[in-house]
Structure formats: C-alpha cells, structure tokens
Give the backbone structure.
Amino acid sequence: MSTGTMTAPARDVRQSIELDLQGMTCASCAARIEKKLNKVDGVQASVNYATEKAHLLAPPEVSVPDLIGVVQKAGYGASVPVPDAVPVDHASDLKLRMIRAFVWSIPVILMAMVPPLQVPGWQWFSWILATPVVFWAGWPFHRSAFVNARHGTTTMDTLVSMGTLASYFWSVYSLFFSYAGYIPYKHSFELHLGHMSPAGNIYFEASVAIIAFLLLGRWIEARSRQEAGAALRALLEMGAKEVCILSDGAEVMQPISALKVGDEFVVRPGEKVATDGVVVEGASSVDNSMITGESVPVDVAVDDEVIGATMNTTGRLVVRATAIGSDTQLAQISRLVEQAQTGKAQAQALADRISGIFVPIVLGIALLTLVGWRVYGTGIAFAFSAAVAVLIIACPCALGLATPVALLAGTGRGAQLGIMIRGAQTLERARAIGTIIMDKTGTITSGEMNVTAIAPVAGGDPDELLRIAGALERPSEHPIAQAISRRAADAGALPAAEHFINLPGRGVSALIEGREALAGNQLLLQERGISIPEGLGRAVEDGNAQGQTVILVAWDGQARGAIAVSDTIKPTSKAAIAQMKKLGLRTVMLTGDNERAAQAIAEGLDIDEVHANVLPADKVAVVAAAQEAGRGQKSGQVAMVGDGVNDAAALTQADLGIAMGSGTDAAIAASDITLMRSDLMLAADAVRLSRRTLSIIKSNLFWAFFYNVVSIPVAAAGYMNPMFAGAAMAFSSVFVVLNSLRLRAFRPLAG
C-alpha cells in the first residue's frame, strides 16, 4: 500500500463552446461533424442533428475560428450563436419544395399507375414534369451527397441522391434508346408481392415519388422540431421589454437593458415583473404560472422574492433587482433545456455510430444486388431496379431521428410543466431508479413553522390563550414566535407587550394588559414556581413525540395552556409518496428530528424507511449506503429529492438528483432534474415523464432497426418497386416523429 501523499485531480480548464451548424440533412451528417471535431486534440464534441447545434469542451489554445474551420472543411457551415436571433425557418423552405414536388409528381405517378391515363406521349410528358422535381426539389439531397463525396464520405443523402438520379437517368436512356420512347408506349402497374417486370423500365414515378415523400417527411420533421421548442421559445420571449426604474424618487421608463442589480423598479397591476428581485414596498398577488406551472397566484409582501417575467395581478410593488440577464431564473431555464437538447443518450450515440458505417454497407449491398441478379441471368432492368430499391429503402433517417425528436418533445413538455430535465443521460438513469430518498424539511414539509394545535387547560378559552401568546411572542424574531404571533394576528388585534424580556433557552416574558405573562418551555415555568397540570404535561409529551415544538403559556402565576408549532406537511406529499410507490420506488425519508417524531411522520405518509437525527453532512453517507445496497440490481439506482441548498452534496452523490423549489443556482448545479415549484407530486411526474420519454425512444429505435433489417432483404430480392421503397422509407421517418409527439399529450398528476 502506498503511503505517499495523494495528488488532487487536475481541474478541467477546458472552455465550453456552442456552435450553430448549417447544412446538415441527416444524422450521418451530424456523426461526420462530431467525428471531425473530436479528432482535434483535447476537444470533446457532441453534435445534435435535431437542434443543429454542437456543444464542445476545448482547451484554451483551441479557438472558435479553428473549430469553425474544422466544420467547414467537413463540408458544412458553422457560426457562433447570436443572442435573441430569430430561428432559421427550415420548415418554410421545405414546405415550398414539398408542395411543388407533389404538384409536379402527382400527374407522373398517376400516369404510371393508371394505364387508362397513359395517353400517347405520356412518358415524354412525365419526363418534363419529373426534371424539376429531381433537380430543383431534390437539390438539397444532391448537394449534400456531392459535398460529402468531395471529402470521400457518404451519408444517408448519398443513398437518396444515387437512387433518384439512377432511376431518372435510366428512364431518360430508355426514352431515347429503347422502345419506351415510342409514342404509343404503355406499361402496366401491378401492386402485389412479386418480382418486378423488367419491361417496366420507365422509373420517372419512382424518382419523383421518392423525393416528394422524403420532402414530406423532412417537412414534418422540421415542423415538429419547431413545435417541440415552441413552449421554450415562448417562455424565453415573455420577459418584460421595458422597466419603470425609481431614480431619485421619480419613475423613469427605461429599456430592460438599463436595469442593474440593486436598482429599484415599480411593477403596477397587470404588468410583468422585469427581473428577479425582492419586494421593498407594497403587497400584491403574483401569477407565477409561466415559470412554475402553479395556477394559483401567490401573495407577496415586503421581503418576499419575485421572479422575472411573472405577472403582477393586484397591488403596486416596488422591487429591488437581485439578478439580471443571464443570472435570472428565466435564463437558467434556457440553459437547462439547451443542455438537455444537446445531450446525447447512449442509445443515440449507438444510432449515430451505426449511421456512420451504414451507408457504405448499403452501397455494397446494392452493388452486390445488381451484380448478383445479372450473374443469375435476369435482365439489366430488373437487376438495376432491385439495386435502386435497396438504395432507397435503406436510408436510415428514422434511426437518426429516434432519440433527438423524442428528447425534444419530452424536454419541451417538461418545460411546460415546470420540470427541467438536464439531459438524455438523465432519462436513462431514471429507468433504473429503485429507491427515492427525500429530505423532510422543504421537500415533504413546507419548511415554515405554523401553529398546529391550541390546547387550553380545562375550562380555558382557546381564543384568549392564542391572543395572549401572540402578544407575548410578537416582539421576538424567532421562527416559532413569529408563527404564533402571525396566527394570533390573523384572528384579531393583539394587545401591546410591555417590559418584554427574551430569556434564551427558555422563552419570553412581558406585561400584557397589566398581567405578568410567560411563554416558553417547561423549564421556564418550573423556574417561576408554576406547576403544570397533568393533562397539559401529557399534551407536551404527545406533541414532542410527533415532532412538534410545544410552547407553554402562563399568566397570573398559573399555566393556561399550550400551543404546538411544527413544520407542516405539504398537502400533496401523501398522494405523491403513494404515487411513487405505484411506480415501484422504495421511499426513504431523511430528517434531523428525533426517532419518535420521524416515525410518526413516516407512518402517517406510509414511507418505507426513515433515517432520523441526520445532520446535513450525513446525507451523502445515507445515499451512498443505499447505492451500495442496490449495486448489481436491475433497479438498484438511487434518486435524491431535496431543496437544492443544504442537500447539494447528496443530490450530486445520487444517481438521479431532483431539486425542489424555484430553480436556484445551487439546485441547478447539483441536480439532474430541477422542479420549478415545491410540490412533491411534481417529482413523481418527473420520474413518470423520464420513463415515458425513454420508452418512446426505445420504441423508435426498435422500429427503425426492425424496418431496415426487414426491408433491405425484401428490396434486394426484387420484391419492392423503387417508388414503394421511397414511400416506405419516408413513412418510417414520419412514424418516428409522430410517435415522439405523443409526449406532448403527457398529463401530470401535480395540479
């Protein structure tokens, strides 16, 4: 065993860089760019085809222009993202090409499929209509294939370009150099599983249909990518554009860019809160639904925090700015979702690797198909048509879309519900979660002290007990005292406390309406010679056993009753824990309470396991022990739910960290999933959404693989017309997109 001094691991000093990419047309393009970038020394790159972005970690000596140059040498475009730039509308260009392609293609397809429409010269008219479809509408495919051919590589567009051009030029050759060019020429179209007739050697309908169907699929794909990000874009665009800043007592309307941390600004009823801040004057109700998903407006007053972009509904507020620009919660949400969308699951990484080697293999199969059928003795038309069908049917677009489109839809839906999923890896870990550990304070409970019971002595008046106790505690700043005085003030006006004395470790004393009054623990009353009735003593013991803090109240030398104060359980916690158990999760609670109090709470909520008397520093050990116990099991990973502040270390230790609350810096840094409101049911929804998204990804990948495995042999055997091959390939991509968009219908259990 070495006894030398341990050396601290070197800190990663690489810079984080994002690039917008242009010119990608399929997942193979993304795989090629990623491969080129990762060849640069010290660079770790992840390219996402769906978002058209590259996320890189690069050494300081590697500059952004260098990385852009690498992408350009690969045959694509790259640029630094422009803040607030209008997203490129790829869907509009594709829609125009797709519509025109179908307008020109439909007559060609109908004439080829319906012999009565084959009027004299129909094949020449088909040639005229097919030419703009192949060369104008299909230009994106040809350009991509050409760019990659210059660099000695192939992509899925290579298959499309080669297949459509081959069928087009074969048909042109037939028109000019065979009987197919005769004006009376006709051919039949048969829809059945069988070998194609080599006599049907005009394939204009195959060329145009392939391009039209592919453009339809890519238009749906592009539109779905835009729709999947629509909720996030709306979220980012809803911030205030102007702010009314208080300057020397005057209200001055300024652009939002003029606001600085520490400035005070006015928010009138019906206006948006300009940025994150603290209320310094006024009271109102604020609608936080666009940030947290909470439908009920929240009451705010002096010293309460407000979130930028939320809506002030009733009163006038003066707010001091505490964060601006990239430090606001709105900006943090943007970064979280961006990270989620550029992340790459293991399943997607596998799909990308397959796409990178798939095209050369398919080209080899197509060549073998052509040569094999010729050697077997079939005509050149049949062999050529079978080879073209292989090229078309094999295009693995669906494989490339399986993960990113589902991830976009899942994270977009999560953003709408207030669930921020950090990345694709999070979804994979959620599948294996078997234990969920929850901190009590601020997670299961509200984190605020409230009066839970008022117990006067026999014959006593509970209202009088609360009124005297509230007056006694009002001058104190202790959270327990504030809870009692707040409850008493809500019930009515309180008398003044004279000669107030704070007695550390015991309680308080004062003159209330001329009577000497005390509020505190048993030690305080014993020191003053005040006896505690048996029933009152029992109430104290019961309250302590349940984790409550019990304050005894006395005046005129007699004990008058007790008031219990505790951190109350959130209304949704019990239902949330029940839902977690339905998901097959073992529930564990961590608390600093004593064993009896912890067990009482756990029994009331039906929690499986409790760890009491746990200090914040001990939480990591509890999580690590649970991980060790689950090692090797299918569902052995551990999730931790906490408030993201004093639970940060445990959140990081857990396989899946879920931070409750409003998305603070600590929560974002430590967690895999951040919940934008403190509702434990939302944690259950986060697990459900993660599992649902991963399920969609797995089904997408299965059907994409299955489609290719089954279709290529069918096409190589000569049983698939090239036109149907193109339609089937386009349908597979459309299926993946539509299957992914089912996530938009995910319904939360949290209200």
In short: Confidence is low (pLDDT under 50) at residues 1-11. The longest helix spans residues 680-716. Residues 263 and 451 are 37 Å apart (CA to CA).
